[in-house]
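Lecture notes, unit on protein representations.

Consider one protein chain, 97 amino acids long.
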Amino acid sequence: MPNRTYILRDAHNKPYESSRPGALGGHRKTKIYGRLDCRGAAQAIARGGYVASRVFFADEPTATAAGYRPCAVCMPEGYAAWKAASTRRSGRGAPSE
């Protein structure tokens, strides 16, 4: 039986072959990543059209370095941290006193 190879994305969002499957899945168009068992991703896959834009990452640091953000459904803590950081960077948020 031949060895299986998987196509993952690196920190520069470039594809590469790996002997191990990805630990996280992502969507190329929305730049969102999450767990492989994510309810939101499963629903999107069931509706169709999502699979063609699906990408995979070895780990969370690689996904974020590639410009993807955490999924609000399956990674709520990571999403909240990303949202807070992006709000601070943009200067939006509660006014300072």
